[in-house]
Design a protein that fits this description.
Helix content is about 70%, strand content about 5%. The chain has helices spanning about 30-40, 40-50, 70-85, 90-110, 115-175, 175-185; strands spanning about 30, 60, 65. α4 (about 90-110) packs antiparallel against α5.
Amino acid sequence: MSGIEEASSPPGTNGVERPEAVADAPASYRMEEIVRRTGLTPRAIRYYEEMGLLSPSGRTAGGFRLFTDTEIAQLLRIKELQTLLGFSLAEIKETLQADAARAELRQAYEQATDPATRLGLVQQATSLAQTRVRIINERMARLAKLHEEVEQSLARLSTRHEQLLRELAEHQSDDDPDARGHAREKS
């Protein structure tokens, strides 16, 4: 939450109509608020739901999707992975599954007291982290290759640009009688 409440809204609603909240239940937001907070379109959010990347926490009596702060964070994570890092939806799904597995392992580790159990959990977490590093390294290698290709293209364009500037200067001096006269005088 932004910490800034609208004056006309009941405390904690951010101007969004919500169903009656249960005392300890997380705040729920409708699609309009999610769109505003994430910058995603309703269509994109529904698509992520169809792809299994997101599950709304519930629905209103009228059938409108409801989302919690956890789902908002997940949508922002999806957006970051897709726009900033260029992950495909399959890579995003794999990353989100790894995030969820890591959270489960962390919770199991905190509850475990046996060192052998904790060691096994750390080994599982290490394996997950190694998988994530592999995915990131593959992405970085592809980006490095793309960067190199674009740099080479830029170098070719720069060379061509300089060549055309020289040709243009020569063409202009050939068409300028004063330039030809000066050239003869210098000879």
